[in-house]
Amino acid sequence: MQSLYKTSHLLDTEHLSHKELNLIFDLARKFKNNDTLGTHRGTNVGFLFHEASTRTKGSFLIACKNLGINVLDLSPQNSSFVKGESLVDTAENLIALGVNLFVIRHNQSGIMNYLSEKIDVPIINGGDGMHAHPTQALLDAFTLIEHFGSIENKKVSIIGDIKHSRVARSNIHTLKTLGAEITVIGPKTFIPIGIEKMGVNISYSLDTILESDIIMALRIQKERQLSGLIPSFSDYASCYGIKEKHLTEIKSEAVIMHPGPVNRGIEISGKVADSKNSLILEQTTNGIFIRMAVISLLLEGNL
Amino acid sequence: MNSFVIKNGLVIDPKNNINEILDIEVIDGVITRVEKNINSNLKHIDAKHKLVCPGFVEIHAHFREPGYTHKEDLQTGSLAALKGGYTTVCVMPNTNPVIDAPYLVDYLKLRAKNLNLVNIEVIGAVTKSLAGQELANMALLKKSGVVAFSDDGMPIMNAKIMRNALNYLENLEAPIILHEEDHNLSLPATMNEGSVSTKLGLTGTPGLAEEVMIARDIVLAKESKTRVHVAHVSTKKSVKLIRAAKEEGINITCEVTPHHLTLSEEELLTRPYDTNLKMSPPLRTKEDIYECIAGINDGTIDAIATDHAPHSIAEKDQEFSNAPNGIIGLESAFSILYMNLVKKELTSLFNLVSKLTIEPAKVLNLNKGSLSVGSSADITIIDLDQEYILDRSNLGSKSSNSPWINKKLLGKVKRVYVNGIEKLTEESHD
Q1: pLDDT 10s digits, A81-123
Q2: For chain B, what are the domain ranges?
Q3: Are residues A106 and A238 in the same domain?
Q4: Which of B199, B275, B322 is closest, CB to CB, to A1?
Q5: Mean pLDDT across chain B, nearest whole number?
Q6: Most buried of A283, B115, B156, B254 (most Cβ within 10 A)?
């Protein structure tokens, strides 16, 4: 039923080679430096965001506008799809209306792998369940390369709810491809069984960040407390929150990242988010150029 | 018509410890002789170079009737059984309505009699509507002919209900079949919790959700003489727990499915999100498979049962998390096991036949699964050398939710007799 996709979709980062990453980064850099204008006037992109999104959706929207693309937004409140079968119907109807590419976010892991077997236009995964969030990982890697030049052998700490995080999974794939050494950090209830097989180290102590070059905190969702994985936000933060005092303990050249939106005072304190070590706003800005690059490459059949 | 002699087959009848080239004489649907070189005027069936064994006995199938007959019914389920060499099938009660009242048992038995394809035995519900709250009328169900009780698919989460069921059943002398899964630990379950679920971002059900329930029920079973039969064991620890319980003298048996003996969670790495790899319990690790194979070899695991669970194409054609659990199993079971276990010398053909015939029959106290003189002629003849493709268009089942669809299999069922009547003939192509 499933085949290994590679050609015309961006479903995850696992299948992106170092060369393909560079292709995306090079084009993103050109967009950022205004070296190319790249236009896709007359192209229609369908947005199907079945989960709330601020940054990702906004960033995709601006990316499309910058490329002269029309956006057809059929997101939650004005659409009724839930399951894959109806997602296929929705997609097919939008294709009939002239949609050339989809940007989709959905709470079901793998739903776009399923959809990609059924439709012929490119799909960009804007986040599926706990599986993948490829454009986030790409913009994170792009931001890091912009900052460091290369991240080969850099030590990365990813802190938080690794178990439920598609951002963590996608970042693990790209950062490994780019040669970084990754440690995931969190309480054991947040560390998924078998994560070490993805080639990462595991730590249950925040002290690990003291050795790190790159510190990535993940957003903690309220429902994790309700499902009993952590007693409370503050209890979690007492062990795994990055606080002002850490700024003097970590390497001075270390960078701090967060995919947003930040729960200030939980994953990281306000002072940390706003510190000179923070790349959080660069991440957000770069998201536009990465998404412009990915959309362009997919529309041109070059990815 | 139902008198004949099957000549020169490799007869394997584990009940009677037979494993040699013999002839079998059947008169009026009853086995009358199992000997070398039988001289007889009766019609001869040539079984040279073929395996001749008791018809297989399935103790765990879902034929979906009544209520879900778009997936399967007693007729198509029986046809699937025959194509797989099965002559007796025990059907699970998770239908709509649930088989929790005698009139429903009567209905199924009448339907099976009219169809006259395979022997159908009925498993009754332990609790009303499988809700796990109130015991079903088990004595009345037993009197109407159920062979065992099960809330299959729905684990009995309340230990007190389980304790009462085990103790109440002691007088009825009927086994209870348990789907062991602690829902608090397992839900929302899509596949085995481990490196593959982590990679694919799917919520996993840990093996320990099965193991803690087995451990609980071993403790409860100690108090009762009721036979506890654990359905579809899937983990190493489950096998070890049952092995220890047997050593302790507890009246416990268990089964394993063909897929839990041959496929691991890693299959999902090559076929990501393939819903024909989704079932409950889920595919586990290679280590678990090795222990299950050890279990069928050392006798810890009594029987192989397919958990034949048909679902329509539309139901399975969904994203992984929403697709229903289960795969069909009857038609491919023997071939899968013959190819993956016997041909790879992980178990003997004799043991495989035993786990498909007399052993499951013994678990549910069925007088089936042997070629004993005087027993009804339920006989399966298999060409062990014939390869075939499991073709969607050629299935007996209404459904085709199998991971082996379009795969080349080895060991084709050629003829099946039920009570001496030929119910299936596959003409050979050679």
Answers
A1: 455 557 888 899 999 999 999 999 998 999 999 999 899 899 9
A2: 4-51+376-429, 54-363
A3: no
A4: B275
A5: 96
A6: B254
CB of B406 within 8 Å of a chain A CB? The answer is: no
B324 min Cα distance to partner chain A (Å): 13
One domain for residues A30 and A11: yes
Q: Provide the shortest C-alpha distance from residue B184 to chain A (in Å).
A: 11
Rounded to whole angstroms, the Cα distance separating A38 from B64 reads: 57
Q: How many domains does chain A have?
A: 2
Alpha-carbon distance A131 to A246, whole Å? 31
Partner A, chain B 273-292, Cβ-Cβ below 8 Å: 273-276
Claim to verify: residue A138 and residue A216 sit in the same structural domain? yes
In this predicted complex, what is the ipTM? 0.85
Asked if B272 is an interface residue toward chain A (Cβ–Cβ < 8 A), one would say yes
Please provide the DSSP assignment of B171-205 as one string.
HHT--EEE----HHHHPSPSEESSHHHHHHT-PEE
Q: Which residue has the tokens 């986030």?
A: A136
Q: Are residues A89 and A157 in the same domain?
A: no
Distance, in angstroms, between B189 CA and closest chain A CA?
13
Contacts of B204 in chain A (CB under 8 A): 192-193
- Residue B369 · residue B358 · CB < 8 Å: yes
Distance CA B55, CA A139 (A): 62
**Is pLDDT of A229 > 50?**
yes
Which of A1, A85, A194 is closest, CB to CB, to B274?
A1
Give yes or no: residues A118 and A158 share one domain: no
CATH code of residue A257: 3.40.50.1370
* CATH for the stretch B54-363: 3.20.20.140
The closest CB to that of B318, out of A83, A132, A166, belongs to A83
Yes or no: domain B4-51+376-429 corresponds to CATH 2.30.40.10: yes
Mean per-residue pLDDT for B106-119? Answer: 97
